[in-house]
């Protein structure tokens, strides 16, 4: 971690403010999701705002790349905030971490131009979902993966998942309360692999609808159990009806992996092993 002072140009009309980006990791088990709620309800946003505000010595509002639900984890959530404080990147990292609980930490900090936005500047997002398929439950994975006690047919799941790659209307895979203006999303890749006793879904897209990944997992698990044919995913895409898609998988197996941004912003994001095999995608629209 460098000691460069976070002193990017001030946004127009807001004299003295600088924009700083943080890469954040958290265990979502004991959080009631990302977004700040009523007093006394612990969220990732509220914890981060309290910690960053102490370092800045003034109230700070943070914005994230992708809001996560209660129980969902993040390997590298990206947030930004504006501040009048002049701190080094190292000071933002160490100072914020001192004021955060053990299940949330800042990995890096970087100064950016005022046109950066953690959500709207992202050109792609990546998630993973872990499924533990074995006869007995796990004491160690209870908050880290979905437990399925039946054997799952990985080949059938892979065939079903392949139909979701590309640009589609994902109405059948969105929450009823989803507020996205359009259900159209471009899925750049979707793969399922066996890893450390789990089946892991890895997916990247220009944007995701509310509960989209968890809905996909629910469908693929049904296919893997033999409760539905591998062609069911194609049928659901065509049907555009959420009521036909079945159960939404629980949150504990879901991980926000990272968001991708144009190289011009120079974010010091860490490489995640399997993402090295996928190129960074760009899209002109603002992803949801």
Tell me what you see in this structure.
- 19% of the residues lie in helices and 26% in strands.
- It is of the alpha+beta class and 288 residues long.
- Strands 1, 2, 3, 4, 5, 6, 7, 8, 9 and 10 form a 10-stranded mixed β-sheet that branches.
- Mean pLDDT is 90; it is low at 1-5, 7-13, 272-276 and 279-287.
- The relative contact order is 0.18.
- The longest helix has 14 residues, at 212-225.
- The protein contains 5 helices and 10 strands, in the order E-H-E-E-H-E-E-E-H-E-E-E-H-H-E.
- The protein has 2 domains: 18-121, Pseudouridine synthase I, catalytic domain, N-terminal subdomain (Alpha-Beta Plaits, 2-Layer Sandwich); 124-255, Pseudouridine synthase I, catalytic domain, C-terminal subdomain (Alpha-Beta Plaits).
- A hairpin with a 2-residue loop joins strand 8 (184-195) and strand 9 (198-205).
Q: Which structural class should the secondary elements be placed in?
A: alpha+beta
The CATH homologous superfamily name of the largest domain equals: Pseudouridine synthase I, catalytic domain, C-terminal subdomain
Any idea of the CATH class of the largest domain? Alpha Beta
Rg for CA atoms: 20 Å
Residues in helix, %:
10-25%
What is the end-to-end distance? 31 Å
Poorly predicted sequence stretches spanning 5 or more consecutive residues: 1-5, 7-13, 272-276, 279-287
Content of β-strand: 25-35%
* Quaternary structure: single chain
Q: Can you write the helix and strand succession as a string?
A: EHEEHEEEHEEEHHE
Q: What would the average pLDDT be, to the nearest integer?
A: 90
């Amino acid at each position: 971690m460098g000691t460069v002072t976070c002193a990017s140009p001030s946004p127009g009309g807001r004299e003295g403010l600088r924009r700083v980006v943080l890469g954040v990791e958290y265990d979502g088990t004991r959080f009631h999701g990302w977004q700040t709620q009523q007093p006394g309800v612990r969220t990732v946003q509220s914890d981060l705002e309290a910690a960053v505000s102490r370092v800045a010595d003034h109230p700070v509002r943070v914005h994230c790349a992708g809001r996560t639900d209660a129980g969902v984890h993040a390997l590298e959530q990206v947030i930004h905030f504006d501040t009048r404080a002049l701190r080094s990147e190292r000071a933002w990292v160490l100072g914020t971490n001192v004021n955060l609980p053990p299940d949330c930490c800042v990995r890096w900090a970087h100064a950016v131009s005022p046109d950066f936005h953690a959500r709207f500047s992202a050109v792609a997002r990546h998630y993973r979902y872990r499924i533990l398929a074995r006869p007995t439950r796990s004491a160690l994975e209870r908050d880290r993966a979905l437990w399925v006690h039946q054997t799952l047919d990985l080949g059938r799941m892979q065939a079903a998942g392949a139909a979701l790659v590309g640009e589609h209307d994902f109405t059948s895979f969105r929450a009823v309360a989803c507020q996205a203006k359009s259900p159209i999303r471009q899925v750049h890749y979707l793969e399922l692999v066996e890893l450390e006793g789990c089946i892991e879904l890895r997916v990247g897209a220009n944007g995701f609808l509310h509960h989209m990944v968890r809905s996909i997992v629910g469908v693929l698990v049904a296919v893997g159990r033999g409760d539905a044919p591998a062609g069911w995913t194609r049928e659901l895409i065509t049907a555009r009806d959420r009521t036909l898609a079945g159960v939404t998988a629980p949150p504990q197996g879901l991980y926000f992996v990272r968001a991708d941004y144009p190289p011009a912003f120079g974010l010091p994001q860490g490489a995640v092993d399997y993402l090295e095999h996928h190129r960074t995608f760009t899209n002109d629209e603002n992803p949801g």
